[in-house]
Amino acid sequence: MNINQFLKHVNDGLPIPKNSKTHEYMVKLSNEAMKITMKLNNSYNTPKEICKLFSELTGKDIDDSFGMFPPFYTDCGKNITIGKNVFINSGCCFQDQGGITIGDGAFIGHNVVIATLNHDFDPKERSTTHPSKVVIGKNVWIGANATVVPGVTIGDNSIIAAGAVVTKDVPPNVIAGGVPAKVIKSIDRK
Predict the structure, then answer these.
(1) Alpha-carbon span 108 to 142, nearest angstrom
(2) Neighbours of 16 (CB within 10 A)
(3) 130 given a catalytic annotation
């Protein structure tokens, strides 16, 4: 298996059974991500060096406008897509095998968790995982300690309150909060 085959598999939402070629490749990617995040998290890096390490982690060019305060954790890295002028604060955990897309101008607060895998509900198949993409729109602000679960889309300009657990799609131009997150109010755009 290669990276293109792996990404096609997970982006098509196909299950990843334990002991499969896809699972073996996923473990390989996890080990590569650990090496890169150790470099990112365990010494000082300039903003330019952070962009370079994040490009290495994702396998994609990251715009110079990207900003991040480490530490940052991921168990894959290769299925993250970052827009321009994105800022990720410290302590975030991305489980990106299913795909994470972050639009231009998004702010991700401290300790945000974005998950894209669910385990199978059948106890006999519990080690099988099911990928599902998370999409964060342009100019979204996700507050500290929020969790976004697999398959969620957050619309452009929306705000996710600190500590929220986002289990369903959030429309554009709203504030959502709570557990599970619900729309609290619309954002008046002038």
Answers:
(1) 5
(2) 23
(3) no
**Whole-number Å distance between alpha carbons of 41 and 106:** 22
Predicted confidence (pLDDT) per residue in 70-82, tens digit: 999 999 999 999 9
Spatial contact of 169 and 185, defined as CB atoms under 8 Å apart:
no
**Spacing of C-alpha 90 from chain mean position:** 14
Query: What whole-number distance in Å separates Cα of residue 12 and Cα of residue 96?
Result: 14
Q: Respond yes or no on whether the N-terminal peptide bond of residue 71 is cis (omega within 30° of 0).
A: yes
User: What would the pLDDT profile of 139-182 be if each residue is shown by its tens digit?
Assistant: 999 999 999 999 999 999 999 999 999 999 999 999 999 999 99
DSSP characters over 105-154: T-EE-TT-EEE-EEE-SSGGGTT-EEE--EEE-TT-EE-TT-EE-TT-EE
Report the SS3 class of residue 161.
Answer: coil
Catalytic residue among 9, 110, 119, 130, which?
Answer: 119
Residue 149 · residue 119 · CB < 8 Å: no
Considering only the C-alpha atoms of the chain, give the largest distance between any 2 of them, rounded to a whole number of Å: 54
Cα separation of 131 and 8, whole Å? 11
